[in-house]
Amino acid sequence: MTLLALDWFLLIEKLVLIAVIIFASLGIALYTTFAERKVAAILQDRPGPNRAGPFGLFQPLADGLKLITKEEIIPNNANKALFILGPGLAMTAALMTCAVVPWGNKVEMFGRSIALQIADINIGILYVFGVVSMGVYGVMIGGWASNNKFSLMAALRGASQAISYELAMGLSLIALLMLTGSLSLKSIVEQQMAEGRFWNIVYQPLGFLIFFICAMAECNRTPFDLPEAENELNFGYHQEYSSMKLGFYLFSEYINMFISSTIMATMFFGGYDVPFFNEAAHADLGNWLAVIGIVSLLLKVIIFIFVFMWIRWTIPRFRYDQLMNLGWKKMIPLALANMLITGAVILWLQK
């Protein structure tokens, strides 16, 4: 078989994997909206969505159909090109982050070993940070292009919030990278699966707590949903949007929540590693081993998403000054202290 033929097989594999992951992410984001409404209903002692389909399971499809069929309105004074670009950029940035996530072990199909990861690059975490930073432009462009003062104020809030908490998030990861010595998410997972090693949450509990809080701020989740403070800024940075442009903004936030949960599960909780399950001893399971790993990763992600929802419907929104004080005066000093303590412990153990 020629090298050219092998390249075609690899291209087809990657295209199929990209399509599966994108559609899975969109499907999960769609039904996360349903899950959030159900969790809110349980916490507030009410039934929640229960009309569209059995147990309300078709409610997300009904919501999506409603957004698709609604009239698309572009304000007369809006910058039309940027008005259209904003939600597209937000959705694109949200979907691109899943490219470096290892979703499971390799599978054997058609006589080939297929990696369940779109791209295993040695700067995977830096790639995630770069793409997440692009999502801020979607918020800023949408708020500015609307030519609405409330949208612009909300977009400025969103950009300031993202920049503030990205600093603490990056510093919390430096301590983790001191332990792993690698920026590749695949390598980080394999290190946690090695014999005699524990998940990184054991070595970096404070780093995980800082990362989790910053992830909520990056996803604009309550109590950090200041860019969408309805009682202060009408509807936030996307109040002039309708139809699927609004849907793109809303779904991108749920995709960000899903990917953030996946990144946390990968870096701190072993990724597709199964607790108390020796993969080497069960190598005879073949492709079922990869299925078990995928299910393990998704269960961890579901737990994180539930915690996101639980916090949203339990804790009230911060004031903006409280949000900034927490980011600059609490999170960043804590992350710096965690980094220094980690470095000191590593140096002491190497003596």
From TrEMBL:
Main location: membrane
Catalytic activity: a quinone + NADH + 5 H(+)(in) = a quinol + NAD(+) + 4 H(+)(out)
Residues spanning the membrane: 15-34, 82-104, 124-146, 167-189, 201-219, 246-268, 288-311, 331-349
Cellular localization per UniProt: Cell membrane; Membrane
Classification via Pfam families: NADHdh
GO MF, any single term: NADH dehydrogenase (quinone) (non-electrogenic) activity
Assigned EC number: 7.1.1.-
Taxonomic superkingdom: Bacteria
Top EC category: translocase
Record PANTHER family: NADH DEHYDROGENASE SUBUNIT 1, NADH-UBIQUINONE OXIDOREDUCTASE CHAIN 1
Subunit structure: NDH-1 is composed of 14 different subunits. Subunits NuoA, H, J, K, L, M, N constitute the membrane sector of the complex.
NCBIfam families per record: PRK06076.1-2
The protein's role, per its UniProt record: NDH-1 shuttles electrons from NADH, via FMN and iron-sulfur (Fe-S) centers, to quinones in the respiratory chain. The immediate electron acceptor for the enzyme in this species is believed to be ubiquinone. Couples the redox reaction to proton translocation (for every two electrons transferred, four hydrogen ions are translocated across the cytoplasmic membrane), and thus conserves the redox energy in a proton gradient. This subunit may bind ubiquinone.
Protein name: NADH-quinone oxidoreductase subunit H
Source species: Parasediminibacterium paludis
Gene name per UniProt: nuoH
